[in-house]
Automatic annotation (TrEMBL):
<feature type="transmembrane region" description="Helical">
    <location>
        <begin position="137"/>
        <end position="161"/>
    </location>
</feature>
<feature type="transmembrane region" description="Helical">
    <location>
        <begin position="168"/>
        <end position="186"/>
    </location>
</feature>
<feature type="transmembrane region" description="Helical">
    <location>
        <begin position="101"/>
        <end position="125"/>
    </location>
</feature>
<feature type="transmembrane region" description="Helical">
    <location>
        <begin position="49"/>
        <end position="74"/>
    </location>
</feature>
<keyword id="KW-0812">Transmembrane</keyword>
<dbReference type="GO" id="GO:0005886">
    <property type="term" value="C:plasma membrane"/>
</dbReference>
<feature type="transmembrane region" description="Helical">
    <location>
        <begin position="20"/>
        <end position="37"/>
    </location>
</feature>
<feature type="transmembrane region" description="Helical">
    <location>
        <begin position="251"/>
        <end position="270"/>
    </location>
</feature>
<dbReference type="GO" id="GO:0140359">
    <property type="term" value="F:ABC-type transporter activity"/>
</dbReference>
<protein>
    <submittedName>
        <fullName>ABC transporter</fullName>
    </submittedName>
</protein>
<keyword id="KW-1133">Transmembrane helix</keyword>
<dbReference type="Pfam" id="PF12679">
    <property type="entry name" value="ABC2_membrane_2"/>
</dbReference>
<keyword id="KW-0472">Membrane</keyword>
Amino acid sequence: MNAISVAKRDLLDVRRAKLIWVPVALYVLFMLLFYWGQSNSMNPSFYRIMLSLATIGGVLLIPLVALVAAYLSVAGERESGSVRYQLSLPVSRTDVVLGKLLSRVGVVSGALLASFAIGLVAAWTLVPEMSVEYGDYAVFVALTLLYALAYVSIAVAISAATASRSRAMGGAIGFFFVFNIIWNFLPIGPAYMARFVFEELGLNYADSHLEFIFSLSPTGAYLNALELAFPAEQFPGQVGSGFDVFYLQEWFMLVILVAWVVVPLGLGIWRFRRADLG
């Protein structure tokens, strides 16, 4: 028995969880509303819809889809004791965590791909006069899936590192508010605080340093990576194009997102392998 076997078994259970489909349904609803809004516009813009999906629907709902799908992946079975039965089979603890990741990624990716397919149908039917840039749309979908993968990995890691449902839920909610809401959108985020400290101490700093701090969160990296999907004239927040430093280029945003996939998962596996499940 390996990670694939664990994923196949877990996939049957996670698909039945109705709570997972609530944020997915909300994301589809937002998408349809954006397309409907453009259908009433004198100058419908495909890129305006994509930007709305990323900044309003994606930033708020994609993390919720991923966290809800995965925060109980390991901790739920650990609290119920069923994980001990699973580990009595010829399967390692690493395979259990990786299997949970694969199953949750499969469900989240499938749901999002279906949502984006519905979006295309909405574009064809609600706004037939609007030009759809399929290449840029494919890049946007790929970036959003990578963003969702990062949050699924984080949720699985939190679940693997905690021993109960309540702690897993608290960790997932805490991560969402700290690294999504506070880090990126509130005036108490690290970039704002760094600016305040630098100015109070009279230290020199560059705007690129503050933008890099913003980009260190999954959401910040995702928003700045969207430059790959938008022409310069369609995306007012072109970050990398305004700085020559490598750590604000679009490709480096992908590196940050991949790091959010790999590093938390590695820490979660390390913590789960050392945990006492008795």
